[in-house]
Specification:
Blueprint: E1 4-7, H1 10-30, E2 37-41, E3 50-55, E4 59-69
Antiparallel strand pairs: 1-4, 2-3, 3-4
Length: 70
Amino acid sequence: MRKLEIILTEEQYRHIQEEIKYSNRVHLSEGVFGGYELRLNVSIPDVFPATLNLHTEKLFELGEVNWKIF
């Protein structure tokens, strides 16, 4: 099995955790099911940096990340 690894800064990690906790509380209080999506945007590897976005009810641009497949 292959692995996708995305390396986050501490700030990016904290932001993701906070938004997921917030979304879960909102969904539970409103009695709805919801989720979130992490989107890795890679245009041209080794030319332009990859970016990571978090989609909940809103879009959060988390910035540049390093990643690899192995």
